[in-house]
Amino acid sequence: MLFQKGNLLIRELEWKDKYLLSKWLSDPEILQYYEGRDNPFDVKKVEQKFFEAEADATRCIIEFDEGPIGYVQFYEVDEDERQTYGYSDSIETLYGMDQFIGESAYWNKGVGTQIVRAMVAYLIQEKGADRIVMDPQTWNERAIRCYEKCGFEKVKLLPKNELHEGEYRDCWLIEHISKAVVDV
User: Fold this and answer.
1) N or C: which end of the chain has fewer CB within 10 A?
2) Where is the signal peptide, in residue numbers (predicted)?
């Protein structure tokens, strides 16, 4: 277990979770927002992407009310991404994160906001993050509203940043700055 906050638990990905990820990432309702409906995952593809790929991110399962409902990953932003995002001259500790709720029954109930707030607190307090960044697609207004409620702000438009359903989509670079950085 990475941490628990109330009825929310974040734990590192385990081998048995490949079946959950395959279930979620083969559901068109979920794929519409994460990976794309033209890119479903079977168990073998999950194994390759989430277990055999180089572990540059900490990959986790989100549990809520004692059941798995989604996925979150976080990572220290590498030099290439720093360059793309405009942070190449910064010496700050910069983390990125990605997440999705794989059980759509938990959408629009404030659970996403709880997840993002808890992850932000964890990254600042436990990992020493000065700044946390994400790059949601511009059309995903529900996710962007959630992130803004959690203290993220739009920094710049990233044109044609992510391949999604056969076309490159614009994304927003959004950031959350830890209070320690703001108070300096």
Assistant:
1) C
2) none
